[in-house]
């Protein structure tokens, strides 16, 4: 099977990531991934890409086969994953068009399978720091070099979807001090940790959520419009970050299962 070392999960409007690709048909114990992975090369690194909503954006956030997607990446040999995603802002200081390199996540989903360990051995991984610090460092460094508007930390609250938040829900999240809101970061990030895969996200801010102030309700059309307008900049950041990923892994992600089983 064709192999890759770095993976990318694409979000809304981000399907033209790689060129000169090879498509790999792959099956997993959890069914088919959102779409067959495509593999290409960026800066001398082999990269696998899966559009998390499917190639034709047919999968709503709560029906994405997250376990199949992560398992497929591992089968291809992937050890690091970037998961860029569209997010709403919960704080006035985080503006549409900004990038947030999140360091924390809050799970407010309720119906998604979110572990590979439904049976013995009972496994409890540490998830205090859900995003890989090494990958976050690469994104921050390359973002600074490119001059993109970047926030080096932030908490993303993940809602079930597919609906957007009520004003009361959004105001609640904003009052907690959380920066951004999204529908796909969980369980993607925790499943990566269970497979000892490094994972980091680039949250591209597409709008102000309704709890961030006196703003009109968000629409899907506006989310896609802003995301597509910034796709070139996101691609530029990823194409700078991927070659800069260290060859050697010395982060905690690589040993996440040590001492986690009973």
Secondary structure blueprint with pairings:
Elements: E1 6-10, E2 22-23, E3 38-42, E4 45-51, H1 66-75, E5 80-82, E6 85-89, E7 99-100, E8 104-108, H2 133-146, E9 150-151, E10 155-159, H3 167-175, E11 180-182, H4 185-194, E12 198-200, E13 203-208, H5 220-229, H6 231-244
Parallel strand pairs: 1-4, 1-5, 5-12, 6-13, 7-9, 8-10, 10-11
Antiparallel strand pairs: 2-3, 3-4, 6-11, 7-13
List the keywords:
262 residues, alpha/beta, Rossmann fold, seven-stranded mixed beta sheet, six-stranded mixed beta sheet, 26% helix, globular
Describe this structure in words.
- Strands 8-10-11-6-13-7-9 form a 7-stranded mixed sheet, sandwiched between helices. It has a 6-stranded mixed sheet with strand order 2-3-4-1-5-12, with helices on both faces.
- It has a single domain, classed as Rossmann fold.
- Helix 2 crosses helix 6.
- The protein has 262 residues and is an alpha/beta fold.
- Helix content is 26%, strand content 20%.
- Helix 3 links the parallel strand 10 and strand 11.
- The protein contains 6 helices and 13 strands.
């Amino acid at each position: 099977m064709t192999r890759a070392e770095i993976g990318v999960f694409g979000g809304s409007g981000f399907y033209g990531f790689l060129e000169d690709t090879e498509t790999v048909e792959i099956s997993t114990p959890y069914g088919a991934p959102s779409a067959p992975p495509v593999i290409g090369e960026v800066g001398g690194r082999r990269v696998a890409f899966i559009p998390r909503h499917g190639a034709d954006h047919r999968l709503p956030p709560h029906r994405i086969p997250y376990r199949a997607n992560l398992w497929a990446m591992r089968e291809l040999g992937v050890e690091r994953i970037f998961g860029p995603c569209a997010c709403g802002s919960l704080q006035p200081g985080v503006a549409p068009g900004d990038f947030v390199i999140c360091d924390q996540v809050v799970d407010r989903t309720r119906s998604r399978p979110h572990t590979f360990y439904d049976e013995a051995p009972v496994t409890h991984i540490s998830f205090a720091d859900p995003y890989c610090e090494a990958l976050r460092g690469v994104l921050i460094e390359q973002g600074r070099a490119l001059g993109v508007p970047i926030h080096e930390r932030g908490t993303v609250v993940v809602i079930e979807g597919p609906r957007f938040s009520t004003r009361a829900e959004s105001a609640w999240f904003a009052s907690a001090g959380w920066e951004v809101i999204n529908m796909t970061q969980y369980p993607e990030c925790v499943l990566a940790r269970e497979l000892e895969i490094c994972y980091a996200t680039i949250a591209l801010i597409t709008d102000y959520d309704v709890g961030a102030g006196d703003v009109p309700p968000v629409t899907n059309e506006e989310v896609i419009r802003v995301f597509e307008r910034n796709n070139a900049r996101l691609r530029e950041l990823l194409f700078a970050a991927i070659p800069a990923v260290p060859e050697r892994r010395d982060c905690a992600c690589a040993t996440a299962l040590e001492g986690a089983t009973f």
